[in-house]
Every structure is written in C-alpha cells, then in structure tokens.
Amino acid sequence: MQHALALARKGMGLASPNPMVGCVIVREGQIVGEGFHQYDWRDHAEIVALKSAGDKARGATLYVTLDPNPLNSGQGFERLRAANIEVFTGVCEEEARRLNEPFACWIRTKKPFVTLKSAMTLDGQLALPRPEKKSGKSSSKRRIWITSEESRAEVHRMRHAADALLTGIGTILADDPLLTDRSGLPRRKRLLRVVLDSKLRLSLNSRIVKTSDDDMLVFTALPLISPKARKLQNAGAEVIRAKNKNGRIDLAAVVAELGRREILNVLLEAGPTLNGAALAADIVHKLFLFYAPQIAGDNQVPFALAPKLLLPPLQHQNVKQFGPDFALEGYLQDVYRNH
Fold it and tell me: What's the rounded Cα separation, in Å, for the pair 49 and 55?
C-alpha cells in the first residue's frame, strides 16, 4: 500500500480536478502491474494497473488508495464482495486521506481546500527590518529573505501541489513577487495566480502582470468597465467584480467562485491583513508556518491582524525541519469530520 501511495503522489499536478490514486497488483509476492491516475489519460489507476498486468492479474491481489468520493463510498466494496472477492479496508487510511483532502473538501462542499502558508521570525514577524542608509532611508525596496533555501524549495513543492495561489494587493505592492510554481515538476495546468485588489492598485509594470499568461485572476470591487479594469484585461489578466462584505471583498464568495472553476487546492500566501481576514472568515483549513531562527525585534509586520479572532486549537500538529528552519503544520478544519 505504501508503494500505491507513492504512485498516487506522482499524480500531483497532473490529476486535478480528480483525486490522486495509485494502484499496485501483486501475484505470488511479485508486482505484476501498477499505475496512477492522470487527468489527461482519463483511465483510472486501477485500469492502468490492470492493463499493465494483463493476464497476470488473474488470481492476484490489488492494492489501491481509492477514490474518496462520499457519493460512491462503500458501494464498490459491496459489489466486489458480492462477486466473492475478499476486500480489506483501512490500510494506511490516514495517509491516503491526507493525500486527497483537497478533493475530499471540494466533492463535499464545492469549495477548495485552503492552506495558509507563512514564513516568519521566531517572534512572529513576516519581515525583518530593512537596513537603513546613513540618510535614514531604507537601502532596499525588497525585503530580505527570512527563511532558508530548503524552506523556499518546500514552498515551491507546495505551490506545485496547489491549483491556485491566493494573495492580496498588499503583498504585491510590498514585494513585487512572481508567485509562480518553480519546482520544475510537471503539471497539466499553470498555477492560477489570484489577487484580491479592491481598488485595482495593481501596476501593469508589476512582475505578476508582466508574466501573466492565462494564469491570473483579479477580484476587485470596481466596475469591470472602469479604465483600470480594462487595462488589466488588455494585459492578460481576468478581472472579476467581487461581492463586498463589511466594506471588503467577500472571501467566502471568492472561494466559492474558485470552487466553481474546479479549483480544489488553494495556497494562501499573504500579509497580515488578508491572513487575519481569511482566518476570521473561516475559509482556512490548514496552517503551514515556517519559522526561521531569527528575531525581528519589532512588531511592524505581524502574522495576522484580526483583533477579535477566536480559533480552536490546531489539530493533527506536525513539526518538520527544513535546513535551519522548522515548520509547524496543523489543521483548523478536518474535511473528513467537519462535513
């Protein structure tokens, strides 16, 4: 089953909007067939494995990570048992569930699974103070990297696993990031870069706009016929007028629109304002927080701004090491238990 799970992971970036599924066929202690699902191949992992095994599949044992679709849950088992085929379930169940939690979330709610990723200092700051020149002005427009190369490589692996990256205009104005998947791993569709920009302050000269290629979506409060919206559209960005809630873009409406577009997995990379708003709006399922062994010593760029925020304790916590940094992973919502 571990081998089947490893095969399923090969579908990362290739299977969405379907789940990642791996299958292994074993006969007399030998693997005679295997496969994983890719959306463009159409065939399910079981079909790929059966085709590769051919006649050797007769009398063999099939290991499959299965499709976590609640609409079909259990029906396949009943049909197999009715045909006098032994069925054993629950093998590596937790690992298989975590692998496909974005699909499980979307198939239940029609909304994507949202992971809030941040990198910060030990005292909870998203940026280090910029060094100042003798004149008292900042010596650089761009912030200094907080985390290590190992952590940044992991971020690109996370981007590779995501269908869309969500950020706010504040991050674009502060850092002028590309927000692309630079993992080098194959994917069937470009990472969709989504920017929340109420007043359309997004510059046509920003790197994210200059590199847009049918992979950029902007939510705004302004009319789509406004000159700013027209200019962004002409530059290759899709602009959507979003619903407002309490004077801000309605985040629930944003994730609902992404779900409608069959976006299963969203990585939120933002600053204090959007981080706080996302947590307050209850759209975040998982936190993945990188910590570098540094102290900022001030409180200019905190992790989240949400003064009245009340959250439950993180569940299923896990700590991982990335070079000199460590990351805390934890869940605010469990898609298998909350729906």
Answer: 12
Q: How far is CA 289 from CA 178, 264, 325, in A?
A: 20, 21, 10
pLDDT tens per residue across span 219-253: 999 999 999 999 999 999 999 999 998 889 999 99
Distance between CA 165 and CA 162 in Å, rounded?
7
Please, is 25 exposed, middle or buried when counting C-beta atoms within 10 Å of its C-beta (0-12, 13-18, 19+)?
Answer: buried
Domain ranges of the chain: 2-99, 112-331
CA 282/CA 311 separation, integer angstroms: 9
**Contact yes or no for 241/249 (Cβ under 8 A):** no
What is the assigned CATH class of domain 2-99? alpha beta
Residue-wise pLDDT for 295-335, tens only, equals 999 888 999 999 889 999 999 999 999 999 999 999 999 99
Say which DSSP state 54 is in: G
CATH no. of 112-331: 3.40.430.10
Choice among 34, 46, 154, 257 that is catalytic: 46
Residue 38 corresponds to which tokens in the numbers above?
């890719």
- Is residue 46 annotated as part of the catalytic site, yes or no? yes
- Asked whether the beta carbons of 146 and 120 are under 8 A apart, the reply is yes
Tell me the backbone φ, ψ of residue 184, rounded to 5 degrees.
80, 0
- What is the CB neighbour count within 10 angstroms for residue 150? 13
Burial class for 159, CB neighbours closer than 10 Å (0-12, 13-18, 19+): buried
